[in-house]
Amino acid sequence: MMMMVMVVVEMVIVLVIVVIVVVVMVVMMVLEMVMMMVVNVMVVAMMLLMEFLVVVMMVKVIVVTVVVMVVTLVVIVATVVVMVVV
Predict the structure, then answer these.
(1) Domain residue ranges in the chain
(2) φ, ψ dihedrals at 41, nearest 5°
(3) pTM for this model (two decimals)
(4) What mean pLDDT do residues 37-49 have?
């Protein structure tokens, strides 16, 4: 009887150890996948942010050029008008 109990206890211990190892491995794999996903998301977010910043910079440049052109046109028109009037 004692031998049977010992064998059962040993089997249970081995089973528990195996289950713990499997659980740890699964958790590690899940964590790794989550980390990879987070890293991917962060990389994509960074790339999107960079593209957004580039677009914003281009828009700023375009706006500045347009404003400068409009200002120069207004100045030229104003000088012409002043000269004609004078």
Answers:
(1) 54-86
(2) -60, -45
(3) 0.42
(4) 90
